């Protein structure tokens, strides 16, 4: 049986990731693929509950402890992801290890340190990075009330995502990181994402799942 593809959407706040992952899963299913959504952080698990409290500023945690919790949240979900991929289900992921690195490195943690806890996670077949200018982001409404939802953090995170993109290209090849402009309408962005994903889903069937940073 051909395996499913692991597709990740990344991007800054309000770039439309959650909007687009839902549409992508529906579109894959409509096209006859089996597909499901996975969001990180997954706030429904016990570890996800700790992350949720931290993001809502209901708790304070050391930066390293939070970084490891975000990674642990991915590790507690990896077996289910791998099982689904093996059974031919495409998994569409809303944020992944790349957000983990970008947000923690933006706080000043060492970049190489930030990569390490996610080493060995399933490697996305494609990561679509939704790009958005600060001007367009500000037109999409005020920032929310959660930690990190402010201009200074988002600017620092943007710079770290550029380093993450370079690292993915260097370790796994440029084809795995695809920038998609999120400036257009929801339908235009959806069409551009589909243009990339359709091909990836068809192509990866016989390839083994790779390992992140290995
Ligand atoms: N974080 C971390 O530190 N470490 C980690 O390892 C991970 C995450 C995984 C919570 O994430 C925080 O956790 C996040 C990073 C950190 N902090 N920040 N920032 P989250 O994923 O739960 O965050 P969120 O609450 O889902 O928000 P978001 O992801 O920033 O938004 P989005 O998913 O990209 O956007 P959206 O919800 O789809 O759309 C936003 C609005 O824009 C909405 O009103 C839409 O209707 C509108 N929209 C969407 N697309 C368009 C277009 N094309 N045109 C016009 N309007 C649009
Ligand atoms: Mg979202």
UniProtKB/TrEMBL annotation:
GO terms for molecular function: ATP binding; dTMP kinase activity; nucleoside diphosphate kinase activity. Residues 9-193 form the Thymidylate kinase-like domain. Pathway: Pyrimidine metabolism; dTTP biosynthesis. It comes from the Eukaryota. SUPFAM superfamilies: P-loop containing nucleoside triphosphate hydrolases. It is an enzyme of class 2 (transferase). Coiled coil: none annotated. It holds the Pfam family Thymidylate_kin. Its EC number is 2.7.4.9. InterPro entries: P-loop_NTPase, Thymidylate_kin-like_dom, Thymidylate_kin_CS, Thymidylate_kinase. GO terms for biological process: dTDP biosynthetic process; dTTP biosynthetic process; dUDP biosynthetic process. GO terms for cellular component: cytosol; nucleus. The keyword Lipid biosynthesis does not apply. The keyword Kinase applies. This is Thymidylate kinase. It comes from Cutaneotrichosporon oleaginosum.
